[in-house]
Write a structure and sequence with these properties.
2 copies of one chain form a homodimer. Chain A is globular. The first copy, chain A, is about 40% helix and about 15% strand. Chain A has 3 domains: about 60 residues, Winged helix-like DNA-binding domain superfamily/Winged helix DNA-binding domain (Arc Repressor Mutant, subunit A); about 140 residues, Aspartate Aminotransferase, domain 1 (Alpha-Beta Complex); about 240 residues, Aspartate Aminotransferase, domain 2 (3-Layer(aba) Sandwich). In chain A, the strands form 4 sheets. In chain A, strands 3, 5, 6, 7, 8, 9, 10, 11 and 12 form a 9-stranded mixed sheet that branches. A 4-stranded antiparallel sheet of chain A has the order 13-14-17-16. In chain A, a hairpin with a 3-residue loop joins strand 7 and strand 8. Chain A has 17 helices and 17 strands. By secondary structure, chain A is α/β, with parallel strands linked by helices. The interface between A and B is large, with 59 and 59 residues.
Chain lengths: ~475, ~475
């Protein structure tokens, strides 16, 4: 076994700040509530006053609390606002649909990569949030000593040490994963595509969320599959009653779902729902393709388990990636495909042989010696702060009647504008102001969600997101008619 | 435009040696022929005697000539032997076939990666032949100065500078390629798969060579396509008369061919045949998927042009890669997909987003500042020598009646054993002697080629290949009955 992964605990003040932030998120502390004085908190917690000071200072920087002169610290107003205005769950009609989204997606997102656009529509968090310099040093070290034979040996299922490191990390999510089940892929996107290929044939029917990650729709389209969209709660994820009814009515061959921090809603399925989902699908013998690329980006106390944690029948094809949490551009993701693991490994070998050796070696080296957990704690905090600031800006600048999700992780929120606002028109208007957004039409096979947007709050640099949201809100107001 | 790629000329003695080697290969110089004396050659060529000495010394090291004391240098016997015993062209019956090879391929090749096996069955040349240290320094340099935004911007179609460098190299093959047509992929394997996807629908019929690269058969299987095998000459590649007849009889939707150094035969289509092939397919509106991964590994004077060089209609989907010529394991290949370029780029984005950024950056940096051409000259010489030695060993040790191809590039030759030798039995027997071979059954949908082997001569270290061929020859003789 390699050295233990970096598990340094957060500093004391950081832990205290995180705890208070969690209370604010859960609603235990509400806007206007006064925090205990530094002296009270110091005594109650048995920490030094300076620890409390530092925690409060951090929370202030994150916009969660504000000091009032000679009065103390108070919870700011941003949080509950959003909570009161959660978008309504979508109620898809349960129709089977052919999928043809690729052109629309390319057209709408093709522009979003231009660097001078404010990237509210981006699919990625800011690359400035990742330890790219440390990673590239790890990459350099690993490649300097690389045994040349490794360049032809590390074929599918991929780098053995890296697979072991990935498996170990799931212990933090409360279950153990067998490294033998893991196949390293060129990012989660390839992993998901291969899993879908492994369990379907052209013409088959696949259940997806509503709204749904456009990448899933593209994959369905590529493989000639049909979609049926399942009602999905902006807070708790896919509705199990609706899913059960659809399974009854239709010959669904697979589900593609994101139980943790769904894209675009940010919804998080309660643990009990995940367990029930796996049981329901097991009963029917329907495989679940689980996209868990945001699982490490939780704002709460600990990593939410994926549905895979409850998979005893090997029917969950779980996919993860380093692209959103550590190493964008390295193109290293994985599938833990249960009883389909061999088939996925074979398809990986047939379709693109293996993931890039430099990327795999660099990541394995970083995970052995790096500070992944420390980086992740910092990243989660930054994203949570980004969310708080974005919600405040939306609250302040968007038209009355706007609703928005308040995810417990990830870097997207889902905005439901007043019905009068045509999101595609807003998208065009925003582009002319050098702001990208992801309009709701991207997230459904039938282009519902006509007055919805997915907003990326993972670009905290220099208040750019808030400025863009202010402009966007004004543009939305101008479209209210 | 970046700095000019490294185009240093070969040293004078290397050029002279290459010229003589070409004369031997072409048959202008035959076994037993005496070379001009050093004095004669020096005068005739206007080079110093020491240049001639060095050239002769090099040719001797390559096994092409031998010194006889007090008599001079003579061409050795290895070359013409093989020429006289070229395998017969296969005559497939032209039946349409479902393809189901994946399990056989995995089973037969799964073992071939164990390091202590003599790798006659390997698909790769020795990793020791590549400038991996120089490459990893280039990778380190590139990553140290990488603008973080590049990690999310270099999505499909891929790194712009790298695409330009790749396009420039085709000038050496006598034509120019538009970088805008290029899509960077995770190796040629992905490029080929995406091209095949782009021009077919499940159930379609695809024409392939006979024998045929098993990777093509696997790709057909993965996509639910059917194969029809075309007679292929071990020397000149696919037979155009047979192909024309099949196009007449069957609704062929695409061809997947390797005009340069075909795997497994090593055949090279004459330039005129390539031109005629493109014209024939254009007439029929049938796209050609061209696998050109060995195109840079020529032993002759200059790079043979790919069929793409004659493509005016945009019907050739040309695929190449650095995996066999420069950077194994980096997983960087490309498709120049003509009129299907946009569709291939879109499919790349949908199925695995982009190739790994570190690999792309490292290769772009190496190509700007490295010595790719110098490396290639060395690599070609090493492979040509390896071939000469392998053919000599086969000539000496294999059973009478053995035939073998003598390719003008690449690192495979195709061996036709006497009909009594069951290649699968020989495969098993060889494994028990820690030698891998690629039995003929891998290279056809209907498992013809029952007494054939593909032999990899790209592992020149320490005479290991020759020793393994000696053992293999003895085992083959023992199976002759």
């Amino acid at each position: 076994m390699d050295e233990t992964p970096d598990q340094k605990l957060p500093k004391r003040y950081e832990a205290l700040a995180d705890e208070i932030a969690a209370s604010i998120r859960s609603g235990a502390l509400r806007a206007g509530d006064r925090l205990p004085s530094v002296r009270q908190a110091s005594a109650a917690r048995r920490v030094s006053p300076s620890t409390v000071f530092e925690a409060y200072y951090l929370l202030e920087a994150r916009g969660l609390i504000a000091a009032r002169p000679r009065s103390g610290y108070y919870v700011t107003a941003a949080q509950p606002v959003a909570q009161q205005r959660m978008p309504e769950p979508a109620q898809p009609v349960g129709e089977v649909q052919a999928v043809a989204v690729a052109e629309r997606v390319q057209q709408l997102l093709g522009l979003a990569r231009e660097r001078d656009l404010a990237p509210l529509g981006s699919a990625f968090p800011s690359p400035a949030l990742f330890p790219l310099a440390t990673l590239s040093r790890a990459l350099g070290r690993a490649m300097r000593v690389l045994d040349p034979w490794r360049t032809v040996e590390d074929l599918s299922p991929g780098h053995e040490g890296l697979r072991r490191q990935i498996a170990i990390r799931y212990i933090g999510a409360g279950f153990s994963l067998d490294p033998a089940e893991l196949v390293i892929c060129n990012g989660a996107m390839e992993a998901l595509n291969l899993c879908l290929e492994a369990v379907t044939r052209p013409g088959d029917l696949v259940a997806v969320e509503s709204p749904c990650f456009y990448g899933a729709l593209q994959a369905l389209e590529r493989l000639g599959l049909r979609a049926v969209e399942v009602a999905t709660d902006p807070r708790g994820g896919v509705d199990l009653g609706s899913l059960a009814a659809l399974l009854e009515r239709h010959p669904i061959k697979a589900c593609w779902l994101m139980p943790n921090f769904q894209n675009p809603l940010g919804s998080l399925m309660p643990v009990e729902n995940k367990r029930a989902l796996v049981a329901l699908l097991r009963e029917r013998g329907v495989p679940l393709i689980e996209d868990d690329v945001y699982g490490e980006l939780y704002f709460g106390e600990r990593r939410p388990p994926p549905a895979k944690a409850f998979d005893e029948a090997g029917l969950v094809l779980h996919c993860g990636s380093f692209s959103k949490s550590l190493a964008p551009g390295y193109r290293v993701g994985w599938a833990a495909a249960g009883r389909h693991a061999q088939e996925v490994a074979r398809r990986k070998l047939m379709s693109s042989l293996s993931a890039a050796v430099p990327s795999q070696e660099g990541l394995a080296e970083y995970l052995r010696h790096g500070a992944y957990d420390r980086h992740l704690r910092q990243l989660r905090r930054t994203l949570a702060d980004g969310q708080a600031r974005a919600l405040r800006a939306i609250d302040k600048h968007f038209p009355p009647g706007t609703r928005v999700t308040r995810p417990e992780g990830g870097y997207f929120c889902w905005v439901e504008l007043p019905p009068a606002v045509d999101a595609l028109a807003l998208h065009r208007l925003a582009l002319s102001h050098r702001i990208s957004v992801a309009p709701g039409a991207l997230f459904s096979a039938d282009q519902r969600f006509r007055h919805h947007l997915r907003i990326n709050y993972g670009h905290p640099e220099g208040g750019r997101t808030e400025a863009a949201l202010k402009t966007l809100g004004q543009l939305a107001r101008s479209l209210c008619g």
